RNA sequence: GGGGCCGUAGCUCAGUCGGUUAGAGUGCCGCACUGUCACUGCGGAGGUCGCGGGUUCGAGCCCCGUCGGCCCCGCCA
């Protein structure tokens, strides 16, 4: 007597892939897709597939009627069938170790074709070394691609992660509250997706770039701890890890400090990683933004690797080349990286590192290898013996360095470091390296416009120790803004919000936001904050990216059922698409497309 | 907005210096086959070389444009 399957219905008793040796002897009824067929003439084997996996269904004259064998012989891939049969143990020499159901098979007694299928445009069943179809075709024929066990595993993992996130949030007292999808532009600064209003000609809703303002208003409204698995929309150009619509685990809580928020986020991340089979330690280490830039040249450092940036400015001696001295004289610093064993790198490898340095704005990359006979390379000549002595190193070392202002040299050397970490001979010291980046600058300078912009959003509270600088040296203010970083990936970010109207006013003034615009865009938030706002702060985790990383994938498209292309098209449904003149007229919209010259 | 890579049979790819009839594997169709598991063997069908233009006696191959996909920069806190 066995327990009935959760998946039993009026039309089936089990999922194909969930049968095991304990079911041997049972008469079962299965439904599934024909994954592959192997016909030996009067014996036909079918691999039947469903979301639980594959099982071999054997059609053999010893237990199958002749018409079943004949029908099985004609089955094409991806046909949906229902089969009746008896679960039988396979003889030892016929066990398939690669299948979850490899020790058993179904002895088919009846077979019904319930969903005939045309020959699939792209293969669902793949041989061991067979490549995937082109991504374009996978997106166009998404239902077939989604049938592949790999993608099904990803979607199942995604589901489990969502449940874990919900449970973790709920168990810490967070209330799941939905916020509008048809809304008003939010302060993230990306382009909005707009939705025309039919009843208000000429007016538009915006899809939310995040529920930022709503969640702050929920704090004002007394909901204390809010979370949402929130869909967000940003009309910006895409990347492998960026989709126009994406999902955040969004949270906000009241009467908290930065540390309180971080503690909650850490617990959620522990739960998510555990669900994927990884035990991780908390609390994560904290790095200030400036420390991260100094040591790693980036605000999302991959701490699985060493190769930290070092400041060698003080090592420079009188015998160094003039250009080195000149670079330092104009305010630059010498930033170097030591690569143990790096002397084995070829000239081509080093040239590639130099190209990275140059494309990131450095004049060039100085390098030297420590060999049996001493330092070699252009860097050794440029620095001179005295400086090399100070920099030091053992035989086998490579040193690379660049001179420049921190705003250029640190990010550039950070990219050089990243390239070093990606080299196959450099194994990560650990599999999971989390950290918090804290004390971000409150503002950053926009290179294009020369204007200051909020580095997070305009409601981020200045660091209490820096509030006094707001009027005098605002660009030196740190923010109560923190990012969670994992293996060089930004998982999410958050901040403690401004609840003091005077501070908020100052921020808008510094950002040169006109009073009219403040009222128009953020009036309902400011009014809310004036209604009695508790101190509050929150966070948003990029859920798709987390699912991607835990699935071991490098593209968001592998963890989203129906993703968009890099041109923001949906190849499967064919969105976006033109609409009829009638629909446009109803929305009071006239379309004018600029002719290409 | 900019840069790079790619586009040849349903799918994955090869295609030499620009040369006459564009190939392979797989899938598909047919035949054979009683223990296969990427079954095997034999036979067959299958091509707008993304699209448009140009150079040339001749273009899958060279040039220009264009469309689509992917990756990156800008952009996206």
SSE order and pairing:
Elements: E1 27-39, E2 44-50, E3 53-59, H1 66-73, E4 80-89, E5 104-115, H2 135-140, H3 142-147, H4 149-171, E6 175-176, E7 194-196, E8 204-206, H5 212-220, E9 225-233, E10 245-254, H6 258-275, E11 285-288, H7 289-296, E12 309-311, H8 322-329, E13 333-339, H9 347-359, E14 366-371, E15 374-376, H10 378-391, E16 398-404, H11 406-421, E17 434-438, E18 443-445, E19 452-454, E20 481-486, E21 489-496, H12 501-510, H13 515-529, E22 536-542, H14 543-550, H15 581-586
Parallel strand pairs: 3-5, 6-9, 11-17
Antiparallel strand pairs: 1-2, 1-4, 2-3, 4-5, 7-8, 9-10, 10-22, 12-13, 13-16, 14-15, 14-16, 17-20, 18-19, 20-21, 21-22
Helix pairs in contact: 4-6, 4-14, 5-13, 7-11, 9-11
The protein binds one RNA strand of 77 nucleotides through strand 1, strand 2 and helix 2.
Task: Describe the structure in your own words.
The longest helix has 23 residues, at 149-171. This protein has helices at residues 66-73, 135-140, 142-147, 149-171, 212-220, 258-275, 289-296, 322-329, 347-359, 378-391, 406-421, 501-510, 515-529, 543-550, 581-586, and strands spanning 27-39, 44-50, 53-59, 80-89, 104-115, 175-176, 194-196, 204-206, 225-233, 245-254, 285-288, 309-311, 333-339, 366-371, 374-376, 398-404, 434-438, 443-445, 452-454, 481-486, 489-496, 536-542. The strands form 5 sheets. An 8-stranded mixed sheet has the order 6-9-10-22-21-20-17-11, sandwiched between helices. A 5-stranded mixed β-barrel has the order 1-2-3-5-4. Strand 18 and strand 19 (452-454) form a beta hairpin. With 597 residues, the protein is an alpha+beta fold. It binds one RNA strand of 77 nucleotides through strand 1, strand 2 and helix 2.
């Amino acid at each position: 007597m066995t327990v009935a399957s959760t998946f039993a219905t009026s039309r089936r008793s089990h999922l194909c892939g969930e049968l095991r040796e304990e079911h041997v002897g049972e008469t079962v009824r299965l439904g599934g897709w024909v994954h592959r067929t192997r016909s030996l003439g009067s014996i036909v084997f079918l691999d039947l597939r469903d979301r639980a996996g594959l099982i071999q269904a054997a059609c053999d004259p010893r237990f199958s009627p002749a018409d079943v064998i004949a029908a099985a012989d004609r089955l094409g891939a991806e046909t949906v069938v229902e089969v009746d049969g008896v679960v039988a143990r396979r003889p030892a020499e016929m066990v398939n170790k690669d299948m979850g159901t490899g020790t058993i098979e179904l002895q088919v007694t009846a077979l019904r074709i319930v969903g005939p299928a045309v020959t699939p445009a792209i293969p669902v069943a793949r041989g061991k070394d067979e490549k995937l179809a082109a991504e374009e075709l996978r997106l166009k024929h998404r239902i077939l691609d989604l049938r592949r066990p790999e993608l099904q595993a990803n979607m199942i993992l995604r589901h489990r992660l969502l449940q874990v996130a919900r449970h973790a949030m709920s168990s810490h007292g967070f209330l799941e509250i939905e916020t509008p999808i048809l809304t008003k532009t939010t302060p993230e600064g990306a382009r909005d997706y707009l939705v025309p209003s039919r009843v208000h000609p000429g007016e538009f809703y915006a899809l939310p770039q995040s529920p930022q303002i709503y969640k702050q208003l929920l704090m004002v409204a007394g909901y204390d701890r809010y979370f949402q698995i929130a869909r967000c929309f940003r009309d910006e150009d895409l990347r492998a890890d960026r989709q126009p619509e994406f999902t955040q685990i969004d949270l906000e809580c009241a009467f908290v400090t930065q540390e309180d928020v971080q503690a909650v986020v850490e617990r959620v991340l522990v739960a998510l990683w555990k669900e994927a089979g990884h035990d991780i330690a908390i609390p994560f280490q904290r790095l200030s933004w400036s420390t991260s830039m100094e040591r790693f040249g980036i605000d999302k450092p991959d701490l699985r690797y060493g190769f930290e940036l070092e400041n060698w400015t003080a090592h420079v001696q009188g015998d160094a080349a003039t250009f080195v001295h000149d670079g330092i004289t104009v305010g630059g610093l010498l930033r170097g990286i030591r690569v143990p064993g790096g002397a084995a790198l070829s000239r081509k490898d080093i040239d590639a590192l130099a190209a990275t340095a140059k494309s990131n704005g450095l004049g060039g990359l100085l390098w030297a290898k420590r060999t049996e006979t001493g330092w070699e390379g252009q860097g050794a000549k440029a620095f001179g013996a005295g400086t090399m002595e100070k920099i030091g190193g053992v035989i086998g070392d490579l040193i690379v360095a660049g001179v420049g202002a921190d705003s250029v040299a640190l990010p550039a050397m950070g990219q050089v470091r990243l390239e070093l970490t990606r080299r196959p001979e450099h194994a990560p010291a650990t599999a999971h390296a989390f950290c918090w980046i804290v004390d971000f600058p409150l503002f950053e300078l926009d290179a294009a416009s020369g204007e200051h912009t909020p580095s997070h959003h305009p409601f981020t509270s200045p660091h209490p120790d820096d509030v006094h600088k707001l009027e005098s040296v605002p660009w030196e203010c740190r923010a109560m803004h923190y990012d969670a970083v994992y293996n060089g990936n930004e998982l999410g970010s958050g901040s403690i919000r401004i609840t003091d109207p005077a501070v908020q006013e100052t921020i808008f003034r510094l950002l040169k936001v006109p009073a009219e615009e403040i009222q128009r865009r953020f009036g309902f938030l400011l009014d809310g904050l004036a209604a009695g706002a508790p101190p509050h702060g929150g966070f948003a985790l990029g859920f798709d990216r987390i699912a991607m990383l835990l699935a071991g994938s490098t593209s968001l498209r592998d963890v989203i059922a129906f993703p968009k292309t890099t041109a923001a098209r949906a190849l499967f449904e064919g969105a976006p698409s033109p609409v009829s003149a009638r629909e446009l007229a109803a929305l009071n919209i006239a379309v004018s497309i600029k002719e290409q010259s």
